[in-house]
């Protein structure tokens, strides 16, 4: 009889020791979907290897997801740059294939939105790309609505899907 051991899942705030692991997750998932740095996707962000420091700033938060002690995903929220002060951005939501389809992204996004509300934000913005259909479906399920033009100055020029949610 083959018994599969249960998977231990933890969702927690990022620590400085997580920087390399979550950057690796983001790079792996980006490569899987062809999200290259030359097109202005997250892998081009100068802070990619220092997410703990980035999300330690006021109004920011980032969570990592562990399965059996390995970082397999993450996501966060931060004030939207060059925008009205009541708008935050859902950022850097990436999950390895083995962590998908388990409701982890939904749970993490809800935590991020709750944090944003607690920080006083009244709207949450996000950008993604059209071929990430599962992610778009999740965001629509969470109440994000498609909008025409970009908000703020994210630097992600090839993220043609822009969405906004009232908090």
Q: Report the C-alpha radius of gyration, rounded.
A: 15 Å
Could you give the count of β-strands? 7
The CATH class designation is Alpha Beta
Counting copies of identical and different chains, the oligomeric state is single chain
Protein name: Putative acetyltransferase
Keywords: Transferase
Pfam family, one: Acetyltransf_1
Organism: Kosakonia oryzendophytica
Commentary on this structure:
This is Putative acetyltransferase. Keywords: Transferase. GO terms for molecular function: N-acetyltransferase activity. Residues 9-167 form the N-acetyltransferase domain. InterPro entries: Acyl_CoA_acyltransferase, GNAT_dom, NAT_camello-type. With 167 residues, the protein is an alpha+beta fold. The chain has a single domain, classed as Gcn5-related N-acetyltransferase (GNAT) (Aminopeptidase), CATH 3.40.630.30. Helix content is 26%, strand content 28%. The protein has four helices and seven strands; from the N terminus they run βααβββαβαββ. It has a seven-stranded mixed sheet. Strand 3 and strand 4 form a beta hairpin. The longest helix has 15 residues, at 19-33. The radius of gyration is 15 Å and the shape is globular. The mean pLDDT is 91.
